[in-house]
Amino acid sequence: MSDNEIKIVSFLCNWCSYGAADLAGVSRMEYPADIRVIRIPCTGRMSPKFVLSAFREGADAVWVSG
Amino acid sequence: MPLKYVINPDVCLKLQKDKCGTCADVCPANAIDYTQTEETITLNAGSIVFSPGFKPFDPSRFDNYQYANYPNVVTSMEFERLLSASGPTHGHVMTMPKLPMKPKKKADKALAEKRKDPKKIAWFQCVGSRDMNKCDNAYCSSVCCMYAVKEAIIAKEHDPELEPYIFFMDMRTPGKEFEKYYQNAKEKHGINFVRARVHSVTEDRDTHDLNIRYADEMGQIVDDSFDMVVLSVGLEIPQETRDMAEKLGIDITDHGFCKTDSFEPVTSSRDGVYVSGVFNNPKDIPESVLDASAAASAAGDFLADVRGTMTKAEEKIEETNVIGDPPKIGVFVCDCGSNIAGVVDCPSLTEYAKELPYVEFATETLYACAQDTQDKMVETIKEKGLNRIVVAACTPKTHEPLFQESMVNAGLNKYLFEMTNIRNHNSWVHKNNPEIATEKAKDLVRMAVAKAALAQPLAEEKINVNDTVMVVGGGLAGLTAAKSLATQGYDTHIVEKKDVLGGEALKLYKTAQGEDVGEKMAALVADIEANEKITVHTNTTLEGVEGFVGNFKSKLVSGGNETELEHGVAVLATGAKCSEPTEYCFGDDDRIIKTLDLDKMLKEQDAKLDSVKTAVFIQCVGSREPNRPYCSRVCCTHSIDNAIELKKRNPETDVFILYRDIRTYGERELLYKEARELGVIFIRYEVDRKPEVKVEKDAVKITLIDHVLNQPVEIEADLLTLAAAIEPRKDERLANFFKVPLNDEGFFVEKHAKLGPAEFATDGVFVAGSGHYPKPVNEAATQGRAAASRALTLLAKKDSLFTSGTIATVDQEKCSQCGVCVSICPYNAPGFAADGRFAGTAEINPVLCKGCGLCVASCRSGALHLRGFDTNQIFSQIFALGEVV
Amino acid sequence: MGNLLEHMGIEKDRVHFSWISSAEATKFVDVVKEISDKVKALGPNKKFVKDYS
Fold first, then answer.
1. CA B737: distance to chain centroid?
2. For chain B, how long is the longest CA-to-CA vector?
């Protein structure tokens, strides 16, 4: 894996940020392809375990967005 | 009409000259059919709801604003598009927005070079509204003040250096939370408000900046220059709508709006035809939504007798039991025409999917959502014995239900489905990096497959709905709601603490349209009392409520007797009341009265009115003040109405209205016009220079500074009417019973300010009337009907109401009874089991659980699980990502 | 959370929390770009990764 390629594990709230990501697509905006989205029903679902596990599995960053 | 492309036959070469035909060649879905022609379809309908909407006023006919000629004069609708993230500039405000973004013509190119970020923008209010000189629209369009303030704030947030100016006549922000928004615009956002009508606009030929000229409040001529002018255009009923109304045989006003009765505000002059939206008078979003719900209730009332006579039962397909079977996953990769396949290498993605663990079958489809693909999907599931499905396509937010329906048709539980978004989150946003996008798509599919492998069939539990309704409050809104619910066949109980029905409306004299309120209310109450489906509980209070949607138990107390009422839904219509003024010498003299006292005198034809030589009205008494920062909405129209009544009784009476802004929205503006024509004198005052009132023996003396003359004016009145603020009942106990919120002032907070104006966030509880916000007769009746309509929607689903499958569950063996979930849940879904083997441990009420997962994350014992988003499923996605690193 | 991870040797810029409404597509893109830039500056994460070999 090259230094430029990174992976950001992104936990997005179904009602907020996931919708924003959909809209960004509909609006044909462009952004870096580093994020991998995991849809969660609400940021309340988040647990520190998920963040730690993501790093353990080799994520370069974790993003949680409500 | 689905949201699809159509061919314009007037310009299509194929249809006109039988040439071209390119679209049929390129359309991968073979959707083009040139042989289609116009068809006349006859539908037999029992009721019609007519909602033709409006047209924004076209300002090209005004020569003084030069909209058609100056590139920097735009309409508010055009400006709205500029602010939009999906607009032509992606939300970036720039001058000359009417030119193409990338102009091709030489002249346009030269102009576009002068484009800049505007630093000073002016909004002109009332363009095409409240104007009898340049157009015939005498009415107020109701929405422009608010949208101009909103546009100014958004533009200013976008560029803090921007100086926005709004030129207006009266600032009309009488809606819920609107007055605070306006005050914030002035005080916090630095929007400049100038009370003036701009006379003309000229253009600097070189820079295309705009020079404007207007007379300020003192009558001084002011010249100023702006980068851009936004015309706040009004709402207009186009000719074709008037023609259509004539065809339908319904009466319209001179301005083309539908004529309706204040007590049946969505019923046209013709039985069976109901109206909603701006065609039924200018209105904003929440009011249009209320109108729409109300029209649905009225259309349903009319058809109550034949309800359910033409329905067909759906065929039910047995669900295959997959528990214990190893996962056999089917992956469907969608090309979405070229939307996905144009970027992502779909064939290689499909091949990749085939190699993933548990994947039995993978295929590429042109459009996964097309009906033929869906049919094929059902066939494949059956043929290959698939038991989990992954679709890699667009967003589950719009398409998940469609695919889940196919799952059900194939006999699979709908929660055995997983969708991953390789369009909105991938092909559309990485279109210049096809290789990376394909890699990302593979990651996403791998994650989805890993999650799907762990999917379990989930049960949706049936919610039992008691179809009895309780309406709290026997005022106009509550009675209107009860009448509609009972007409449509539901047992309805009205709980009223007073001994009579009718509420505050009984104190009113006439509506703004001149209907006698007393007579109409008496007829409504008689209807209610004669209705067998309605039980009226007067002198009764509500002392407790238990339960949830479909299963409420309320404790009613009347004269010391307690009864229990079981009901499925509740409508809260508790109303508001008139406040007691604390200023202007109220209470010191019987010549100083409140608006409702004057209504009483008019109702009773009080002889004292004959001796009134000078009558004065003071507006905003207790409204739009720091301790009551809202506008009471009804007072301007009410005072003007009463002023007209006094003038008509005796034209010799001098009548003065002292006001801050006149807020006669919609066609109420015509009353304002009539009052001025009858000689009612309007004098504006500033909130920091309020009128002073002194009680003397011969007269009540009122002194104020005239805003035109800037001189003190003294009026000797023998009747002073105070437009006292309307106050909510602020019933915190009731709010608590149903777990519904109150705002800072004590009005109920609806589910959604725009889209859910007659219901609460709590399922099964609805709101109507002035307890939500002060409103006149027609709006209270509309909201009463709207609340009934929303309740009916729920009651009609009685037999098909299920909980969601994706909710929290408890592994009671592991539960340590710590109670964190019980205290943390915003919806009160977890509780402690009362009896049984696991008494004391947590249990989740599936009806109340919204599936947010807060309790699951907070559970220290690992006893809570969120179905559909369980911990192992989220881990599986993380692990799937880790596999390739 | 951020502090704990920093304590463990994971740089602060590797964990982000944000709030974006479903209408704020522009903000979404801005946040993605910001995070991506910050993480690229740090390079790939080597710490704490499970060793599969």
1. 26
2. 99
Which residue type is seen at B160? P
CA distance A64 to A37: 10
Distance from CA of A59 to the nearest CA of B (A): 7
Asked if A33 and B397 come within 8 Å (Cβ–Cβ), the reply is: no
Q: What does the block give as tokens for B22? A: 């390119």
Q: Cα B184 from chain centroid? A: 22
If one counts the domains in chain B, the total is 7
Name the β-bridge partners of B55.
Answer: B236
pLDDT tens profile B260-312: 999 999 999 999 999 999 999 999 999 999 999 999 999 999 999 888 888 88
In tens, the pLDDT along B712-740 reads: 999 999 999 999 999 999 999 999 999 89
- What tokens were used for C16? 């982000």
Copy the structure tokens of residue A16: 């907020």
For B791, the token pair is 């309740």
Q: Are B564 and B553 in contact (CB under 8 A)?
A: yes
For residue B324, tell me if it sits in a domain. Answer: no
Strand order in the sheet with B700-705: B692-695, B700-705, B712-717
- DSSP β-ladder status, B329-334 and B388-393: parallel
Read off the tokens for B292: 């729409």
CB contact under 8 A, C48 and A55: yes
B contact test, residue of C21, C26, C30 with most B CBs within 10 A: C26
Domain ranges of chain A: 12-65
> H or E stretch including B235?
strand B235-236
Which domain does B877 fall in, by range? 808-882
Question: Are C44 and A61 inside 8 Å of each other by CB?
Answer: no
Asked whether the beta carbons of A18 and C18 are under 8 A apart, the reply is no
Rounded to 5 degrees, what are φ and ψ at B503? 65, -150
Residue B313 lies in a domain: no
Tell me, yes or no, whether B119 and B203 share the same domain: yes
Distance separating alpha carbons of residues B431 and B4, to the nearest angstrom: 23
